[in-house]
Structure formats: C-alpha cells, structure tokens
Amino acid sequence: MNKQLEKMKENQEYERRKRIAEEKHKEWVQKKTEEERRERKRKVSKEMVEKATRELEKMQLQEKADIKYKEWLKKKRAEEAEKKKKEKEKEKEREAELQEKRTRSEKVFKEWLQNARNKPQPALNGYGFPHGKSTGSYT
C-alpha cells in the first residue's frame, strides 16, 4: 500500500512538474512571440522613419536644385538681355557713323559741285579752232 501511495505521489509530482514545465514553456513561447512581434513592429517603424527621412532629404535636394536652376536661369536671361543691349548700342553707333559718313560725303560732294561750277571751262579740243572744228582749208 505504501509503495502504491508512494508511486501515486511520485506520479502526481511528475504530472505536476510536467504541467508546470509545460506552462513555463507556453509562457516562454508566448513571451518570445511577443518579443518577436515587438521587434518586427520596431523594425517596421524604424524603416518608415528612415524612408520618411530619405523622402524629406530628397524633397529638400529637389527644392535646392529648383532654386539653383531658377537663379541660373535668371542670371542667364540677365546676361542675354545685357548682350542684346550691347548689340543694340553697337548697331546704333554703326548707324551714327554711317550717317555721319553720308553727311560728310554729301557735304564734300556739294563743295566739289560748287567749285566745279565756278571753274572756267577748258577750251574744247583746243588747237585754236572755234568749237574744236576747222573752219576752212589749211593752205
């Protein structure tokens, strides 16, 4: 009877330890699963933060690039406007020079014309013949 009682107690103790071990194992598995879930959540959260940071940096770089491009374009247009202005000034100078040259040429031509009218006419074909023709025979 004592042996049976002892065996029963041992079996009960074995069953109790087995149940405790199983419960502890279940708790450990549950804890591990919860840790893994939290770790995955943390990783996903970290990745989202990194992605948002990268997107923000990308947007900031794009904004900087846009600003630089607009500044460059503004500078380029100002340079082109300055170039056109200089070309117009050169063209005006050329026109002024041409006009001055024409005016001088006309003045010189008028002076020459005036002087040419006042000069005495040369004898036509000279040689002492009136109007350059002989009036009679030579003998």
From TrEMBL:
Composition bias type Basic and acidic residues, residue spans: 1-38, 45-60, 78-110
Region of interest (Disordered), ranges: 1-60, 78-139
Origin superkingdom: Eukaryota
Residues in Coiled-coil domain copies: 2-136
Alphabetical list of InterPro entries matching this protein: CCDC34 (IPR045323), CCDC34/181 (IPR025259)
Record's protein name: CCD34 protein
